[in-house]
Every structure is written in C-alpha cells, then in structure tokens.
Write a structure and sequence with these properties.
Strand content: 25-35%
Shape: elongated
Number of helices: 6
Largest sheet: 5 strands, antiparallel
CATH architecture of the largest domain: 2-Layer Sandwich
Helix content: 25-40%
Amino acid sequence: MTSTTKWLLAGAALVFGLYGLDSTYRGWIEQPTIVAGKKIEKLQSEIEDAEALQRKARKAARSMEVLEARSLPSDPELARSKYREWLLSMIQQHDFQDASVDAGSPVEVEVKARVGKSKRKSVGYRIPFSLRSRATLAQWTAWMQQFEQAPHLHKVNSLSITPLGNGSELNLQMELEAIALDSATQEEQLSDWIADPQVASAPTASLAIVQRNLFATGFSKSLQALRLKAITTDRKGSLEAWFSGKDGAPTTPYKAPSEVPVPLHQLQLTEIASDHVQIQIDGQNVRLNLGQSIADALSIRIAPNSQESNP
C-alpha cells in the first residue's frame, strides 16, 4: 500500500468520522433541543391563554356581582309585586294621568351549562310589564331619566307615543322587562345599588327634547305675547305677578308657585321678587324681568307667520 493510498484512506476515515459526529450531535443534542423549545413555546402559550381566561373570569365575576346587586329579589312573585309598586310610585311622583300597570307571568331564563353542551341551567326570571298613561313631554322625559338611572335590571322593550290635541300631552304605552336572578343579593326588597355619578346622565340631557317638542302640531305665539306687566301686593302682603295676553290686557294675577296656561308649553311660576319673577318653561329655569316677554327671556324669535294650533 502506497503512501498516497494511506492518506486517501485516512482522509476518508476522517470524513466518515466527522459525519458520524455530526449525526450524533444532531440526534442527541440539536433535535431534542428543538423539540424541547417547541414544547416550551406551547406551554408558554397555554399559560398565557390560562391567564387570559382567569382575567376574563375575574372580570365576569365582578360584573356578576354588580348584576346580583341590581337584580330584583330571587322570588319571582315577590319581585313582580315589588317592582310594580315601584313603577306606580314613579308614575305618581311624575303626575302621570290615567295610568295603569299590568304585570305578566315570570318567564324562566336559561343559559348553557359549563358541563355538557346540551344541558341548560336556570339562572332566574324575566318579568314583563305593560304601562299605559297620559303625560306631558316634560313629565315623560323626567320619568325616563329616572328610569334609566334606577338601580334595577330592567329595560324598555317597546314604546308607543301618540300626541293628543296640539301635542302638549302624550298618550304613552310602554312594554318593560325586569330581571330577577336566583343569586340576587336582595332577598326581600328592591336593590339599593348606587350608580357611578360620573356615568349618570345630567338633567340637561333631556332638556333639549322638552324644549324642541317634536310632537307639537304648531308653535305658540303666546311666548311672544305673554309679558310680565306688573308685580303687586295683595291685602295680605303676598306678591302677585300680572301677565298680559294676546290683547295686552292684564289677566288674573298669579302667586308662586302656580301654573300659567300657555298653548304647547308648560309654564310654572316658581318665585316672585319686587322687579322680576322666576319661571320654569318646559323644564328650563328662566328669570323674567318686568316688561319682558317669555320669548325675550328665552332669546328666541317667533316668526310673524307662526300659527298657534288649537287642541
């Protein structure tokens, strides 16, 4: 065997040896490291998913605590009775006319159970209510604002509004729904949960609706004609406010508080001073000085061809 052959054989053995070492490295070190890395990535992803699920569960638990605090009592019959009493007190508070409240039968509320997709679990009852009444736009918007800010789990499913006469009064028909959860915090009374004051809508939110009565069939020129003509004192020393009508003649004197009839609007005389009065027109507080008309105090302009609708 020549030296050249020996060198060739040695080189071949070295190549095969290096290949064997490379194969051993790949099989015993590199491949297991790649597999382990993939397992670690999968575990990290599963941990992140589990943590996200835990955060979601904690958030759902906090939301559920709020729902339980706002729920009607768990007993559906007691819940129906208590909520109907609350609706009637609201109606009386806002001076609704010819009001009636009918309570329907409680309907069971079911959700999918955690175990078994085909199984369903009862969580409470939804109770329907029907309300029918007559009210002014100012009374209804004030009622709706209080309804929105109430602590109960309830909603308006449908609303029907029919203007009566010239639109100064509305015929209302509302379909409401309230929820009574089995896990309700309050067992015998309605919820006393207090909403976040930052979330509650301001009283001025509904004022624009009252001022712009879309149900009115005309525009009252009396706002321009009605003017504070005089402030006098009666025999008992009580202040009286005199308003002029369409013909400029003084009408019957009014004392505070009292309502002054104006077509299409609701005007309340709330306070009388020596040189001015405080009025509330469609829910808006306004100062009216001697000789000033309602339209001037509101800084609005009545078109000359505006016509006043009769009921």
